[in-house]
Amino acid sequence: MLPTATYTSGDATHDFHPGDGPHTTDGSTTQISDIVLNAGGEDRDKPSAAKDTAMGELRAALTTLQDQINVFLTERMRAEKANDTDDIERKVLDEGVEEDSEDD
Fold first, then answer.
1. pTM of the predicted model, to two decimals?
2. Long-range Cβ contacts of 94-102 (<8 Å, 24+ apart)
């Protein structure tokens, strides 16, 4: 049985399923950054390959699930940040009021 996860926030719900695979322990969102790699750094904490056992397959499926969740949350944060910026810009443009202005 593969693991699943459900994200719930307010009235939004999103289900995550790792799918049939293949799965590895080499997650795309859990590695060190490309900047560090390009500067000659190495990932000293890189996980070992999953063994061909029930626990090894579960471990690899969890890595896939973690990647799915990380990508989803990153996209959600970017969208919220863009909406926040748009709201501030809209307020300034539509109302002609600076955000921190005080009327005396």
1. 0.70
2. none
Summarize pLDDT for 33-84 with one digit per residue, the tens: 888 888 988 888 888 889 999 999 999 999 999 999 999 999 999 988 888 7
Count CA atoms within 13 Å of residue 68 on its CB side.
19
Token pair 């626990």 is found at 55
Does residue 9 come out as left (phi exceeding 0), alpha (psi in the -120 to 50 range) or beta?
beta
First to last CA, the chain: 66
Contact (CB, 8 A) for 63 and 23: yes
Contact 48, 104 (CB under 8 A): no
What beta strand segments (E) does the chain contain?
A: 5-9, 12-16
- Residue 97: what residue type? V
